[in-house]
Amino acid sequence: MNTLHSNSDDPKTPLLPSHHDTIPRSQSFINSPLQSICTINNVFILLGPLSCIIICLCVDLNGSKLSRNMLAVLAWVFLWWITEAVPMPITSMAPLFLFPLFGIASADHVAKTYMDDVIALVLGSFILALAVEHYNIHRRLALNITILFCGDPLNPPLLLLGICATTAFVSMWMHNTAAAVIMMPVATGILQNLPASGRSDDKVTKFSKAVVLGVIYSASIGGMSTLTGTGVNLILVGMWKSYFPEATPISFATWFFFGFPLAVLIFIILWVILCLFYCSKGTANALSSYLDKAQLKRELELLGPMAFAEKMVLIVFSMLIVLWMTRSITDDIPGWGALFEGRVGDGSASIMMATLLFIIPSGKQKGEKLMDWNKCKKLPWNIILLLGAGFAIADGVRTSGLAQVLSASLDFLDKAPYLAIAPAVCLISGIVTEFTSNNATTTLVVPLLIQVAQTMHVHPLFLMVPGAIGAQFAFLLPTSTPSNIVGFTTGHINIQDMIKTGLPLKIAGIAILTILMPTLGALVFGTNDPI
């Protein structure tokens, strides 16, 4: 046996290489580091700075050195984001050193963009979401709603509606990826009562596909309806505040009045598509022997009655929703935020209510609170850093003048009919988002749309909102968004299923947005008014 493959624990193995080795150890020593260096991942790592150098040396943006440097940094960061050569949270911190090095912004200035009221809103929301998850409230909610919608006898379309509606509701109050992660075990727990795909009726297999597709798409759709549902909405609000500080900010309630009707209409289309493709007439008979209301009730009984801690978490969460909805209502009814002369934001309410979780006792053990910092170790700092990077890049694109330069590439929108602008922008954003993250798409596209809106003399939100919403129509590929990956890894669906369902859903979403933006959008955001 070759000594290169001998057991190192064998006492007879020589400590030094012997001359009998068929391959010299020196050569093995040389080859090993080379093999670890010459990898595809390292090639992707080099692509970032290499593209930055090429742009700095070869690109001339009308003599603007600052715009060129910003484009170079943008290429570096986005290449690392797209290829994931470096972990996304680390890439998200790259502007903290790249901006000062390339003269785009000072270290203090870029660092401040990583923490504002929007980030505070996210932090507080995530802490509350962790409390909901810790006390298993999401599972109790899911089982109750599923029992309500199950029907007697079994009604598969109604059951599918219940699962999807529950997911969409949960996704309204936490990040859509977190909602998918929380709800997928609930969905697959229901599917565990069904036989495996290889040994089941075709109708059972189709229903399993419908449930998984329904969860991942409902998580994305539910996230559209509120500011806390997805990072895209938060990026949009942050950019609006950054570019137009004197304009009326987009509050939680303002976005909800537009986002919720939009999400409801798209959700109905999703349910119809799933029923048409995956719920045939014989589905109820095929499922009835495996799935019934009694089984779901037994699972709910195993959870026991609601404890004091669960009730308090729900009360705190409900209070936060009320505070979000009533901080700023209308011009005639200003909301409770007027009491503080506009100094408080949605992030203030979010952090305040999250703080209560560390003060209110849990009722389980003496001195134990509803939450402690150990329970917060799962906070998704990657998403928080990604949001901060999005705000930093948006600020850099604006201050460096790069937005004005790049907006020239979208000058074809100047000639587009007024009513065709929203679908055109949504389509562009919807295509880009299939190949990169929703947040990255929004960070790249929205600053350009702001500049285009100014050259077209239209309200910026008339382009910004379709651009941001379009970035959330990531329905075709598993890698388009993390929530899609959550569903894809269950093994119940494949890419063909996603394209079959996602393509008509994307088209329907663009059509609905085309109708709502010049009508409801004009009413809610005032896009017919000058800014």
TrEMBL record:
Listed transmembrane segments: 34-59, 71-98, 118-137, 180-198, 210-240, 252-279, 300-324, 344-360, 381-398, 418-437, 458-477, 507-526
UniProtKB keywords: Membrane, Transmembrane, Transmembrane helix
Coiled-coil residues: none
Primary residence: membrane
Molecular function in Gene Ontology: malate transmembrane transporter activity
UniProt topology in membrane: Multi-pass membrane protein
InterPro entries the UniProt entry points to: SLC13A/DASS
Localization (cell): Membrane
GO CC terms: plasma membrane
Alphabetized PANTHER family for the sequence: SOLUTE CARRIER FAMILY 13 MEMBER (PTHR10283), SOLUTE CARRIER FAMILY 13 MEMBER 2 (PTHR10283:SF82)
Identification of the protein by name: Citrate transporter-like domain-containing protein
Organism of derivation: Aquilegia coerulea (Rocky mountain columbine)
